[in-house]
Amino acid sequence: MSVFIDNATRLVVQGITGRDGSFHAKQMMEYGTQVVAGVTPGKGGQRFENAVPVFNTVAEAVAATKANTAVIYVPAAVAASAIFEAADAGIGLVICITEGIPVLDMTRVLPFVRERGARLIGPNCPGLISPAKSKVGIIPGNICKPGNVGVVSRSGTLTYEIVHQLSTHGLGQSTCIGIGGDPLIGTNFIDCLTAFQADAETDAIVMIGEIGGTDEQQAAEFAKREVKKPIVGFIAGQTAPPGRRMGHAGAIIAGSSGTAAEKMAAFEKAGISVMKRPADVVPLLKERM
Amino acid sequence: MNLHEYQAREILRRYGIPVPPGEVASTPAEARAIAERLGGKVVVKAQVHAGGRGKAGGVKLAKTAAEAETHAKAILGMTIKGLTVQKVLIAPAAEIASESYVGIIVDRTSQRPVLMVSPAGGIDIEEVAAKTPEKIHRRAVDPRYGLLSHQAMMLGFALYKDVKQARAAADIMQKLYAAVYGVGASLAEINPLVTTPDGAVQALDAKIAIDDNELERRPDIAALRDVSSEAPEEVAAREAGLTFIKLEGTVGCCVNGAGLAMATMDLVKYYGGEPANFLDIGGSSNPQKVVSALRIITSDPRVKVILFNIFGGITRGDDVANGIVQATREFTLKVPIVIRLTGTNEQLGVEILRKAGFSALTDMDDAVKQAVALLKGRAP
Predict the structure, then answer these.
(1) Which of A176, A190, A205, B311 is the most buried (most CB within 10 A)?
(2) Which residues pair with B187 in a beta bridge?
(3) Phi, psi of A287 (to 5 degrees)
């Protein structure tokens, strides 16, 4: 078992003929992901890499190929529309890699996705990988190793850094999930902790957060109550200047300022081992496992 | 992107919110002419992206047009929190019966726009939240239906007992909500929302921040950007497609990805250095971006060592290496450079760097330690 994606994942790539979409579709196919369809309006009927059928719409792709997961590489201007389309076509898991979607668009996308019973991961995320089974997104496959550590992160390259540390020290991963760095995202830390707690192949969890918002603090409280597996956490941005993105009104609404110090304290209070630097992940995990 | 008060007032007017008259001036003579048109007794307000303008002496009351000119002369060119005042807003000195606060932001937890109002206006809302949190009323709005009339009225009554005033405030809130979606705002505040002695409800001061992701599809809003109000390095970085924030330290950082960039800054501090900046070269980097990044980092005289931390995913090691080599052909690097390069096309990148006389490290901790050692004059 793994989390959210596995050997049964049948993937449709939205934007498969674009620059990023085509590059990463090939990488996913090489990794062994079942890429069953692509979508680019106006290019229906073509075949990508002489293998994957391309459709004009996601609905056609689902009808013809029984795709159950969609990954989005389209430009920011049409990315919100692509999420609507995937959820409307009955796709159960939608992963949006695209960054730059306006937050106000997401206030409309998220309720729509939930009403249709779909899960969105992202936007502005690197996607996820269950090593040796399936990869959806852009996480480099060669830095991952199959194993029993679940990784969930708000960041992209920082996730690679920490996964790389794990793999080079013999700690493989069940699934690595990048949930995205935007203020409004479809899947949060609590959703991922719930999934890892239920996953028989995951024995320990690494949580990589950053400054801003209160998702990490809420996840820490949740972890204390509900998660029985050991957790090691990191917060990026201990030296970052505060208030650059949303200003203080956001902090008031959230009831907190979302600083690294506050989040690290919340982790410690919940029994999560806190890394001071990425390289601490290995000794801390070994201590807890 | 932050808008100036005068720009925010213009947007509110466009959405039908009552805003007292007022015009913007960039010279003392213009200020005087506007004050004459407005009847002499005016407020002269500095237009800068900084809070606490009043405390800094950037807001002054004038009894006559001549006094308005004198105040404008003093305020124009003054520096508030490092920003030079280029424009002043001239508005009639209003008589105020009461001051309230109305704001809208997108809340991360409820994932909805939230209306926030308080009868304690005219002061920073942070201060109200800290001292009298019970005076702040909130309402999350379902974006499918917008701010409904009865919801706006409930908030209106939280501000005013008088039904006419509550209704006027509710109308302003619905219009402000429309403005948020209309211009792509991540934050819109009216502070203070005032009542005049004759009972009218008006927006006296406004603050609007635009979500940067909205600017591409809203060229009219993007045109409101005032580059003179931003740090020159940040303007140059944005034009080069980089995210850059200037800090106070001496280690110039160049990293791919925001999370890794923050973690790198943290590690610099962990090993006893101070980061000079946050700089994210983004995902699909081309060599030119790296050249621009180096140009911006080296323009800061405080930078004593440059630290690259690249974990290639979409970013390719050879692109970064080519950028570094190209930059050294275009200008001289006066400070040492430490390069950590791993991930996609690592071997290609290392080879390009080696041929140009640079070495590269593969471990992040080693690179940061070496950068800090160079800073302190120790042999790494």
Answers:
(1) A176
(2) B105, B209
(3) -65, -35
Q: How far apart are the first and last CA of chain B?
A: 41
Q: What is the pTM of this model?
A: 0.92
From B222, B256, B277, the end of a domain falls on: B222
Domain carrying residue A132: 127-288
Q: How far is CA B139 from CA A9, A169, B136, B191, B209, in A?
A: 40, 49, 10, 18, 20
Contact residues on chain A for B107, CB-CB shorter than 8 A: 250, 253-254
- Are both A76 and A159 inside the same structural domain? no
User: Is B116 in Cβ contact with A253 (below 8 Å)?
Assistant: yes
Q: Which residue of chain A is at minimal alpha-carbon distance from B109?
A: A254
- Contact at CB, A215 and B114, closer than 8 angstroms: no
Answer whether A240 sits within 8 Å of B278, measured CB to CB. yes
Nearest residue of B to residue A19, measured between CA atoms: B284
Tokens 């330290």 sit on residue: B249
Q: Nearest by CB to A157, from B186, B217, B256: name it.
A: B256
CB atoms within 10 A of CB A153: 30
Contacts of B284 in chain A (CB under 8 A): 20
In this complex, the residue of B109, B214, B259 whose CB is nearest that of residue A154 is: B259
Among B282, B305, B277, B301, CA closest to B373: B305
Whether A147 and A223 map to the same domain: the answer is yes
pLDDT at A252 over 60: no
Q: Cβ–Cβ of A252/B209 closer than 8 Å?
A: no
Extended strands (E) in chain B: 23-25, 42-46, 59-62, 79-80, 83-84, 88-92, 98-107, 112-118, 137-140, 185-195, 201-203, 206-210, 243-246, 251-255, 277-280, 305-312, 337-343
Report the residue of B104, B285, B311 to disrupt the A interface, i.e. the one with the largest count of A CBs within 10 Å. Answer: B311
pLDDT digits (tens, 9 = 90+) for A166-177: 999 999 999 999
Q: Tell me whether residues A276 and B259 touch, CB distance under 8 A.
A: no
B186 secondary structure, DSSP code: E
Average pLDDT over residues B248-267: 94
> Is B43 a member of any domain?
yes
CATH number of residue A220's parent domain = 3.40.50.261
Instruction: Choose the closest CB to B313 out of A160, A237, A249.
Output: A160
Q: Note whether B296 and B233 are within 8 A (CB).
A: yes
> Which of A153, A215, A244 faces B245 most closely, judged by CB atoms?
A244
* A248 assigned to active site: yes
Amino acid at B65: A
The pLDDT value given to residue B282: 81
Beta-strand pair A204-210/A146-153: parallel
E strand or H helix at A273: strand A273-274
In the three-class reduction of DSSP (H, G, I as helix; E, B as strand; rest coil), residue A120 is classed as strand
